[in-house]
Amino acid sequence: MTSILVETPHGPARAALHCAHEPRAALLLGHGAGGGVEAPDLVAACHAANAVGVHVALVEQPYRVAGRRAPAPAAQLDAAWLAVVDDLGERWFDGLPLVFGGRSSGARVACRTASEGQAVAVLCLAFPVHPPGKPEKSRMPELDGVEVATLVVQGETDPFGRPSPAHHRELVLLKGDHSLKASIDDVGRAVGEWLDRVLRPLD
């Protein structure tokens, strides 16, 4: 694992690089609003991706690197993420297809930036469809706006809601809540199988 700092318009971000043998693609994963890249589901996704020949960058947003707990506004998160994508795409992942992903808030960033960042697929762990108890404040337009193959891994009892499948969007429901801690092995299995399948036409 290699950890590097990447300059963004909103301060330095940090990327922890986990390299695969003979890589076929690269997966960039963002963290949730109040958590870090050590979240169990992100770690499981990282290991699963490496196992099927995918480099992984676990990306810490600048507000986390600076020691702040409150997340930055969406526009700042997106701008910082795209700066990291550009940097790593040139420095480490040149010529490789890029998959965007993350958990919770990180999944929202991945969805919002997928088109501009030219992601070939999007991985959403615990996508927060709406704030708990407030289904009227839906974030589904962010998920619906993704035009490439998408996997959503969601806990059956997630208080942030449950998205529906769509023609290019798969939904895997697992036992547990928003943390997905109750089904970590299943998270890794779902991510690995999906990545292997969606990347096959690009090999």
From TrEMBL:
It comes from the Bacteria. The keyword Hydrolase applies. This is Alpha/beta hydrolase. The keyword Hydrolase applies. The lineage of its organism: Bacteria, Bacillati, Actinomycetota, Actinomycetes, Pseudonocardiales. It comes from Lentzea tibetensis. InterPro entries: AB_hydrolase_fold, KANL3/Tex30_Abhydrolase, NSL3/Tex30. It holds the Pfam family Abhydrolase_11. Keywords: Hydrolase. Residues 24-182 form the KANL3/Tex30 alpha/beta hydrolase-like domain. GO terms for molecular function: hydrolase activity.
